[in-house]
């Protein structure tokens, strides 16, 4: 419970003794008011990204040098239009500003406002001022305001608001020196002026709340009455008390909020009367509107969006391949170099377990970096809002919104960055639906599996002399994945209850050139988040899978190996052939092999045998491992000159001597790979993004169940 | 203060009342009141208060959502048809 002496404001809370503690300042402002640009300008690379307790809202903090040895600790709060939260993200602000005992409680706030939208930005400022928080006003985007013929009398604004006002262009960095001086000298003052008087009818309730919690401010007490159900720091007893008090007073939160907002706007009209002058130079249509005529056109709008998607796809599929190959080769070279010099089980654990797992993490970096470079540019330029606008109606029948489009399509390349990209979706329900179904989109890791199996059973012929059969089947697999993603979202939307009312209302930002610094910082931040957080889980599971595939119960592995060696000696196999057969025998008798035999009864109805069972287990690490595992297992009993995996699979015979991989069996396996959740990186990312094991477990059970049923259908019906 | 009407979902505004969804592209009108209390709070926060001038800039190719310009600052909002229907206009 927050405790403060009745008449002292916790302006500089002396929680940590000593004068060296840098002051804490919180950045707060409307979305699109240039808050993030200002944060990047103030802190540069000294940023730390974490999460606010209990929610997946990015908590960005950084140290801002203010000249000399003086520094300030800056925290970037989610963009909001008012202190009454409308989304889960915005609740973070209330938890932070209403609890003076919280670790992040700021010494003062910097409110960024868009100078071309001054009135709306100042609504938030007046609320903060009425809370008595020391504040500085950062008057941002003065260039846009000037373009629109809006001139602002800064000294007059300072007089009216009674806090320092610093004109800024955060994107270019102008005005920052002035802001640093204001911050360093701690010129932020608690405004003495109040912008809204609490109506007399609410006073008794406000006094009761103030007395009950020992609050220093009337307006804060009123916010307790409005928001107590959502304030995390209040105890159960506190909430019961507040529920009783508000009920006794007949307090109608919605109506009182609406009245307050209208009264504040009326007050702001007076404040701005002598501050803002608009010189109407027969306004020509803003450039943004002209661009919108093309980019949201009923034909060109979609064509341009398709072209951008194509480029995005090209980048993640093709361009990312080069750095991915380098990483792959680098990791193999490292493992090879270590294995050439040392040997023993520990070295194998290091190379085949840890380093291979690490490779599985690092390999994603190029795709993540490229996708987020694209997303950051689209977001920064203002185009993303238009994509949402174009696609919203198409996505709504499935319970998704226009904002789900980009993550879903990125999922065709790789679900990991795609799920991370779903953070742009504000509505909790839309975001969870998007995250949940994204892995059903056929990602690039499925390509090797698809191509091997399709080439195995589908003839390389054309249909109607036009379409290549293999291409058609491949396209069908992609369509199957996409359709299942949309239908799953549609089914899930019925089950999932919304935690909040979701709004589509959003501001259309004006088009602007992206700032490369912001783009660069986004990439660094996302890559770091993936490597550190998802990476831990991936390496751990890689090591586990390595142990399962390398060791077996009892002496069976040693016996199997000895048997192969005897056979080799008797039949004079060349060394590579022996090695292959030993590897295959060891895998068969390992825990993984035992597991394959164990689950064979379960997967037999799908047309799979124990060998495919092993491949299913090992491809849980990553789907592409399927090809390698199949190659190892099917080396048994074949000619020395093995050729490709495809040939090996084609040569495999069933008990009657017919080819094992019939079209029916291959199709069953293909369908399984379309649906099955076989990617621990995705599960780890889902866990990171949802902060709960329920979601990744749900994905695992649902997708694997779907895969099983679909394969069963294929094998039993055809 | 009759800021917004407390109308239940079952009884929407009478069909005679024009809403922001009835505007023609390029047409301007004045906000009279907001029919949905919860939606009203969000709209008010964003500056869509009774008395504000709104202009329908255009609609998405499939007719939904739509783009509204608000007030003299001339900033643009995008909102769904269901949301625009809660903005009642002065006759």
Using the 3D structure, state the CATH architecture of chain B: Roll
Low-confidence stretches of chain B: 7-11
What structural category characterises the helix and strand content of chain B?
A: alpha+beta
Share in β-strands of chain B = 25-35%
**Largest sheet: number of strands, sense, barrel closure of chain B:** 5 strands, antiparallel
Our count of helices of chain B gives: 2
If you compute it from the alpha carbons, what radius of gyration of chain A comes out, rounded to the nearest whole angstrom? 31 Å
> Helix fraction of chain B?
10-25%
Protein name (chain B): Ferrous iron transport protein A
Pfam family, one (chain B): FeoA
GO molecular function, one term (chain B): transition metal ion binding
Keywords (chain B): Iron
Which properties best describe this structure?
heterodimer; A: 718 residues; Rossmann fold; seven-stranded mixed beta sheet; 31 helices; 12 strands; 59% helix; elongated; disordered N terminus; B: 91 residues; alpha+beta; SH3 type barrels; 2 helices
How would you briefly describe this protein structure?
With 718 residues, chain A is of the alpha/beta class. Helix content of chain A is 59%, strand content 8%.
């Amino acid at each position: 419970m927050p405790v403060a002496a009745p008449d002292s404001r916790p302006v500089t809370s002396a929680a940590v003794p000593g004068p060296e503690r840098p002051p804490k300042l919180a950045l707060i402002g409307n979305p699109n008011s240039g808050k993030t640009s200002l944060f990047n300008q103030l802190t540069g690379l000294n940023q730390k990204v974490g999460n606010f307790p209990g929610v997946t809202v990015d908590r960005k903090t950084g140290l801002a040098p203010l000249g000399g040895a003086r520094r300030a600790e800056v925290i970037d709060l989610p963009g909001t239009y008012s202190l009454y939260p409308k989304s889960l993200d915005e609740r973070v602000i209330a938890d932070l500003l209403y609890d003076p005992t919280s670790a992040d409680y700021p010494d003062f706030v910097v409110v960024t406002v868009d100078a071309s939208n001054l009135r709306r930005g100042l609504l938030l400022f007046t609320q903060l001022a009425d809370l008595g928080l020391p504040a500085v006003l950062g008057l941002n985007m003065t260039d846009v305001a000037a373009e629109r013929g809006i001139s602002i009398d800064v000294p007059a604004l300072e007089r009216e608001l009674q806090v320092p006002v610093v004109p800024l262009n955060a994107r270019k960095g102008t005005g920052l020196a002035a802001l640093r001086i204001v911050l360093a000298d701690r010129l932020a003052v608690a405004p003495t002026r109040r912008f809204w008087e609490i109506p007399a009818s609410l006073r008794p309730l406000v006094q009761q709340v103030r007395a009950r919690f020992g609050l220093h401010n009337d307006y804060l007490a009123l916010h307790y009455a409005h928001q107590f159900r959502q304030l995390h720091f209040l105890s159960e007893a506190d909430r019961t008390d507040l529920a009783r008090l508000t009920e006794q007073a007949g307090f109608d939160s919605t109506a009182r909020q609406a009245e307050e907002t209208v009264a504040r706007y009326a007050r702001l009209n007076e404040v701005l009367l002598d501050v803002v002058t608009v010189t109407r130079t027969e306004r020509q249509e803003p450039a943004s509107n002209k661009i919108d005529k093309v980019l949201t056109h009923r034909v060109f709008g979609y064509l341009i969006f398709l072209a951008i998607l194509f480029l995005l796809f090209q980048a993640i599929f093709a361009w990312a391949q080069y750095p991915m190959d380098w990483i792959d080769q680098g990791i193999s070279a490292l493992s090879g170099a270590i294995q050439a010099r040392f040997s023993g089980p520990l070295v194998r654990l290091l190379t085949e377990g840890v380093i291979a797992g690490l490779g599985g993490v690092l390999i994603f970096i190029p795709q993540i970096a490229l996708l987020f470079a694209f997303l950051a540019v689209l977001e920064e330029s203002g185009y993303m809002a238009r994509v949402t606008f174009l696609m919203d109606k198409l996505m709504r029948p499935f319970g998704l919104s226009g904002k789900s489009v980009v993550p879903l399509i990125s999922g065709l390349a790789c679900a990991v960055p795609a799920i991370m990209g779903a953070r742009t979706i504000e509505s909790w329900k839309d975001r969870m639906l998007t995250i949940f179904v994204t892995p059903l989109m056929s990602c690039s890791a499925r390509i090797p599996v698809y191509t091997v199996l399709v080439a195995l059973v589908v003839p390389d012929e054309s249909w109607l002399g036009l379409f290549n059969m293999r291409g058609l089947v491949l396209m069908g697999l992609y369509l199957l994945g996409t359709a299942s993603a949309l239908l799953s979202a549609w089914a899930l939307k019925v089950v999932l209850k919304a935690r909040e009312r979701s709004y589509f209302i959003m501001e259309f930002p004006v088009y602007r050139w992206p700032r490369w610094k912001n783009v660069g910082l986004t990439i660094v931040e996302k890559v770091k988040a993936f490597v550190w957080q998802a990476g831990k889980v991936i390496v751990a599971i890689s090591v586990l899978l390595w142990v399962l595939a390398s060791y077996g119960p009892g002496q069976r592995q040693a016996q199997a190996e000895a048997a192969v060696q005897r056979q080799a000696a008797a039949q004079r196999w060349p060394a590579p052939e022996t090695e292959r057969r030993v590897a295959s025998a060891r895998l068969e008798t390992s825990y993984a092999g035992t597991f394959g035999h164990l689950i064979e009864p379960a997967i037999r109805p799908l047309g799979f045998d124990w060998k495919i069972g092993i491949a299913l287990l090992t491809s849980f690490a990553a789907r592409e491992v399927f090809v390698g595992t199949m190659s190892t297992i099917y080396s048994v009993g074949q000619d020395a000159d093995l050729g490709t995996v495809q040939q090996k699979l084609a040569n495999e015979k069933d008990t009657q001597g017919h080819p094992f991989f019939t079209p029916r069996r291959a199709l069953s396996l293909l369908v399984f790979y379309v649906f099955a959740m076989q990617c621990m990186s995705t599960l780890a990312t889902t866990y990171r993004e949802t902060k709960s094991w329920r979601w990744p477990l749900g994905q695992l059970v649902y997708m694997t169940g779907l895969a099983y049923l679909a394969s069963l259908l294929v094998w039993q019906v055809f | 203060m009759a800021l917004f009407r407390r109308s239940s979902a079952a009884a929407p505004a009478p069909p005679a009342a024009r809403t922001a969804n009835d505007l023609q592209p390029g047409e301007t009108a004045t906000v009279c009141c907001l029919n949905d209390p919860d939606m009203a709070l969000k709209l008010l926060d964003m500056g869509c208060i009774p008395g504000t001038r709104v202009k329908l800039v255009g609609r998405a190719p499939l007719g939904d959502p739509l783009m509204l310009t608000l007030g003299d600052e001339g900033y643009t909002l995008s909102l769904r048809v269901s949301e625009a229907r809660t903005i009642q206009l002065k006759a």
